[in-house]
Amino acid sequence: MKELVKTLVTEFDDKDYAHAYMEEFSNMAIAAQIKVLREQRGWTQKQLAEAAGMKQERVCALEDVDYDAWTVKTLRKLAKAFDLTVKVSFEKFSSGILDVSKISPETLKRTPRQEDMKEFSSNGYGHVETLWGNAVTTTSPISFLPIKKPINDIEYREPNKKAA
């Protein structure tokens, strides 16, 4: 794996190559995780489709590593079906290279919400977080998120709600 990391670091000198490589990796990783999560739950594509409110053919397409038309809306439907949440973030290329070197079916599995919340509360509310199989100790809370009471001139604002 160290050789793969070294090779990617060298090849990522080319900006276009780096972006194309990580885009392809992201597509593959999302498709693979959908399949791993489905199989982890013992579901068929049809069962996942029913749980997510879509057709089986759509799930088949989403599990294809060549699929590249992801929408957050679709990912949220799948997350709800799996009883998980979706996390979308901008990352450094070095993080992406490390993700490439550590991906496996085991690192793609996730614990459903109820089991996760039980484990989370029994381990001291998340003082240790696992990301791609490595434990990371978290010591400070995220302080920039708006909360209901003003702190440091940040006020909580209700998100725009759609009319029912």
Describe the structure.
By secondary structure, this protein is mainly alpha-helical. It has eight helices and two strands. The protein has helices spanning 2-11, 15-40, 45-52, 56-62, 72-82, 93-102, 105-108, 113-122; strands at 128-131, 134-137. It has a two-stranded antiparallel sheet with strand order 1-2. It starts with a helix and ends in a 27-residue tail after the last strand.
How are the elements arranged and paired?
Layout: H1 2-11, H2 15-40, H3 45-52, H4 56-62, H5 72-82, H6 93-102, H7 105-108, H8 113-122, E1 128-131, E2 134-137
Antiparallel strand pairs: 1-2
Helix pairs in contact: 1-6, 3-4
Summarize the structure.
The chain has 164 residues and is mainly alpha-helical.
List keywords for this structure.
globular, 8 helices, 164 residues, 2 strands, two-stranded antiparallel sheet, mainly alpha
* Spatial extent as radius of gyration: 19 Å
- The number of distinct helices, counting runs of at least 4 residues, comes to 8
Q: Write the H/E string, N to C.
A: HHHHHHHHEE
Q: Helices and strands: which structural class? A: mainly alpha
- How far is the N terminus from the C terminus? 52 Å
Contiguous low-pLDDT stretches (5 residues minimum) are 147-157
Strand order of the largest sheet: 1-2
| Tally of DSSP β-strands | 2
Averaged pLDDT, please? Answer: 84
Shape: globular
Can you give the helix content as a percent range?
Answer: 40-55%
